[in-house]
Structure formats: C-alpha cells, structure tokens
Amino acid sequence: MYNYIEHGKGATAVSTHQEDPEKYAEFMERIEAGEKIEADDWMPDEYRQTLIKLISMHGISEIMGALPEKEWVPKAPSLKRKLGIMAKVQDEMGHGQLLLRVAEDLMAPYGKDREDIMQDLLRGDLKFHNVFHMATKSWADAGLIGWLVDGAAIITQTNMLDASYGPYQRALQRICAEEVFHAQHGEAIIMALAEGTEEQKAMLQDALNRWWPALLMFFGPPTAETTGSSKQEATIKYRIRKSTNEGLRQAYLDKYLPRIFSLGLTVPDETIHYDEEKKKWIYQQPDWNEFKQIISNNGPRSQARLRLRKIAHENSAWVREALATPVVTA
Amino acid sequence: MSLVETAEQAKQDAAYKEALVEVLYQLADDDFIISYRGSEWLGLAPHIEEDVAFSSITQNTMGHAMLFYQLLEELGEGDADALAHERISNERRNGTYFEIKNGSGTYLEEPQYDWALAVVRNYLYEAFKKVKLEEALKSSYAPLRNTADKVLMEQPYHLGHWKTWITQLQDSSQEAKERIQSRLDEAWKQIGDAFELGPKADDILAKEILSSSETLKQRWLDSVKETLTYVPNGDLASELGNGRAKEHTDQLDQALATLSEVYNSDREAVW
Ligand SMILES: [Fe+2]
Ligand SMILES: [Fe+2]
Q1: Is residue B235 less than 8 Å (CB to CB) from chain A?
Q2: Which structural domain, as residue segments, surrounds residue A32?
C-alpha cells in the first residue's frame, strides 16, 4: 500500500543518469515501453534507492500495521469475528514478509539485509505509514481499519499494479487480491454496527470522527511545498506509480464518501462537498504539520508500537543466536 | 456400546450426554485458550516468517474450538458464541497448564513473553491433542469421530511446526538448552490434569466415548520421548489445580475478561 513518504536519511543519489548515460537511456526506454525490470538487471542508483525506500516502507508498514488491529484480535466479539480478524492480520504479516524479501534483494548490492531494515525502524530512520501511529479505542476501530484503511490501500496499490519493477509488481498483484477480502471483512463489521444498537452506531460514528484526518493524510501531501518534501515525482518518472497523491485521494473520496453517507454516517468536515465544475471534492485539509509529526514517530501510539517491536526483538535475541548455532544431534 | 449417530440420539440417554459433553468441553476449552494465548503473541514472534506461521496455527486452532463448541450447541448446551464467551472460569474444563500467561506484562503493554514457553507448551499441547483426537476416532459418538477426523487433517502441520522448533532449540546454544529444559521441568509439574477425564471419567470409559487417562498419558509420553533429548524426572503433577474439574488460576480469569470484553459489553447485540 502506502505511498511514498520521505525517508529520514535523505541520502538519495543525485543525477544518476550521469553514471552511465547510455545505459540510463536504454533503461528509460525499457520502462517507457512497459517492460519490467528484474532484480539482476542494470538500474540507475536513484531507481534502486527509490524502490528500496518505497518497498521497505511498504513492507514495514504492513508489519507495524498488524499491531493496531492485533489489539482487537483477542477481543473480537464472536468466534466468527475472531477467525476473521486473525486471518486478516495474518495476511498483513504475510504481505510484510513478501515485501521485505523484495526489498532485501534490492539492498543486497549495498550489503544490507533484514536486520538493517529492523534496526532502521527501531532507530526511527525508516518510517511507517501514518495511520498505524494512531490509537484504536473500540471494536469499531478494528472494523474501520479493514473498511477504510484497507480501502485506501487498495486505491494506492492498484495504482502501482503496473509498476516497472517486476518483483514489486508481482507482489502487489497478490497483495491486492487479498486486500479485497480485507475490505469485505471490515465492511461486514461496519455493517453490523451500522445496523445495530444506538451504542454500536455511536461507537462507529466516533471511530470515523477520530480516524478522518488520518485517512485524508493516508495519501500524502498534495504538493511538495506542503511538507517541504515529496518524492512522488521520482516514482511517477520511473513508472512505479501513475497518479499523484491528490489524484488518489480524490478517487478515494469518490468511492467511499457515498458509501459513508448511505450508512447514515457523517464526516467531521462541514465544508466537504463535490464541486461539479471542477469535478472534484472540496474538503478541509488535514493538519500537514501534524502529519509530519506523526510520521516522525511522534504520533499518539508511535513510541508504544515501536516499543512492542523492540521488546520482541530483544526478547528473541537468544532465539536468533540459537538458530545460528549448529544443532548437535545426540 | 453401539454407535450413537446423532445429537438427538445422544440426548435420549441423559447419562451418556452428560459424560459426552465433558469430553467436548475439554476439547473445545483447550483449543480455545491455547488459541487465545497464541493470539497474544501476534506481531511479537522471533521473526516475521514465524509470525505468519504461528498466527496461521492459532487461527486453525480457534476454528477447531469452534467445531467442538458447535457439537455442544447441537447437544443443547447453548449457542457456540455464548459457550465461548460467557462461561466464567469455574465452568471451564481446559487443562490449567494451557491457561497460564505467556510471560509478564500484557499483550498490549510490556509483553515480556518467553519463546521457550511458547515452544515447549505448544509442542506438548499438539502432541497431546494428536493422541486425544486419535483416541476420539474410536469414540461411540459419531459426530465426535467425524470432527476428530477433520481436525486431524490439519493438525500434523501444527505438531510438525512445534516439533521443528523444539528440535532446533533443545540442543543448540547453552542458553537455549537451559531455557527449554527449565520450561520442560515447569510443564511436568503443571500438565498432569490435562490427561484427566474429569468427574464423569467412569461413564466416559463405560460408554466408550474416549479412552482412559492412562492410555492418553502413556501414548503421549511415548511420543514426546522420541523427540525430547531431555525428559524431566518424576511423575507428571498438577500444581495449578485440576482444570478438568473446573479448578483454575486467576490467569484464566484475566484471559476471559479480555477475550469477552466486547462481547460482554452487550450480549444481546449482533456484532
Ligand atoms: Fe496488506
Ligand atoms: Fe490489508
């Protein structure tokens, strides 16, 4: 899912076409002709680095994204819901695994691997997606994540289904197929609440009110000026994605606002409306400074969730060490 | 004893039904609590691949619990969701060793969980479950035979998974070896009640619903001794109480409070 957010260490190589202008031209021709680049093919350093950042952020977001939902897995209110949410969160971990493998292949020439990704995450050098820094306060949040966060993921991921990098493109095919089930799982929870008791309806509306700004932020800032950095240009230039952040957000609003309203729900933005002339939704911008704070690990649950990963990492140090020790058979 | 084909038939013999539901509660409650403890581990396993595999097993195990609760529902014990969520700890029949927490802290804050406990407990549990279900294949209650058969199709993968872990860890680094051995010592003191059949044991045997406690224990010991390179001395004990007789620790109460928190916020609502 998860589109590009500027990485902590802004170490992107510059003007890589100068490293070998001929190879670069050939490379650009290939991707413009719709060919797929494979892991062992020549690629400009800027392309490789853009992919590493994009895919490791995507992968780690899947993994960190399991944590907010996990909070509700043991609490799911029926056997059916327990099974459903377990399956969903397991899929997300699976997506993380798949993507980290793609990222690891790209990092190999730099002598880096999975452990570096984890260390970058724990140090705060590798960002994870803004939505996964937020608190989950009720069961409605668990449904809302499936419905609207996975719904947003479907929009950004299908936008990259034709990505120029083959291994990523193939991973996305599989991920998108599963995301559709996730959105259905979320929608089923939401429908039960929307058709339920007054308390259930209120719980749902409250969840939507709290999540709305984070959902708008999901697609990233509209322009580079908004937060001072946005690498959407590089991903578009290299045919990794097609649309801009704002284009994706508009597609999302087009798809979900009618559904939200038809369930009798509202969004916490009195100004929101569709402008027939401009053919787009006019909405109140979320606080992009807050967005920057959130993805810099200063969101409501950023540190707590990183802490969970850190504890897990530390507590299993002996396991990693043991696995590296050859088994002595009796 | 001739085969009892349906729930309706079982219900006509009150003593038979009473003995039968004891066995079903044991099977359902064991899977349910083991799956709950597994779900607390989600996102905290030693590596991502393990998280994926472990959560798959946890999910299957919850599915198995559901099948057994459904058998109880057919016998008139109440709705499967109510059986899973509403019963308090002194109505539960799971083995006490399966209910103890994964470590200090909670799954939400400071989960200082011990992978050695996860490996030892899940391995011992799956080995036990295999024996119990294989014995259930001979049960006089046909729906139990069928369900045991279904569950046993998925179960070899679960057992194999934990067997691989314990095999890898028990003779690797000194630290791993010590951690595994001390968790095995602990297990030997706590797992005893799992092999009990509870207050209706005599009827369970007389009506050929399940094999004896001794058979279960002996077959299990034979099986784990093939894998374990360290087997604690002494008999199995039940230091935490007898779960089959509905005795439990307060750690089960805490688990139940969590897993039924949303359900209990409105038992009548549709979730
Ligand atoms: Fe995903
Ligand atoms: Fe998803």
Answers
A1: no
A2: 4-194+232-242+289-324
Say which residues have a Cβ less than 8 Å from residue A267's Cβ, sequence separation at least 6.
A208, A209, A212, A257, A260
Is residue A31 a part of any domain in this protein? Answer: yes
Q: Which residues of B148-187 are buried (b: 16+ CB within 10 A; e: fewer)?
A: beebeeebeebbebbbebbbbbbbbbebbbebbbebbebb
Mutation target to probe the A interface, by most A beta carbons within 10 A, among B41, B87, B172, B231 is B172
What is the A214 CA–ligand 1 centroid distance (Å)? 17
Whether residue A97 lies inside any domain: the answer is yes
* Structural tokens at position B49: 């691949």
pLDDT at B250 over 70: yes
- Decide if pLDDT at B259 tops 90: yes
Q: CB distance A86–B58 less than 8 Å?
A: yes
CATH of the domain at A62: 1.20.1260.10
A79–B179 CB contact, under 8 Å: no
Residue A329 is predicted with a pLDDT of 54
Render pLDDT for B68-116 as a digit per residue (tens, 0 to 9).
999 999 999 999 999 999 999 999 999 999 999 999 999 999 999 999 9
Question: Nearest by CB to A90, which of B56, B113, B266?
Answer: B56
The alpha carbon of B234 and the centre of ligand 2 are apart by a number of angstroms equal to 49
Total number of domains constituting chain A: 1
B197 touches chain A (CB under 8 A): no
CB-defined contacts A:B, below 8 A: 148
Chain A partners of B174 at a C-beta cutoff of 8 Å?
none
Domains located in chain B, CATH noted = 8-265 (1.20.1260.10)
- Whether A130 is covered by a domain: the verdict is yes
Q: Tell me if A248 is assigned to some domain.
A: no
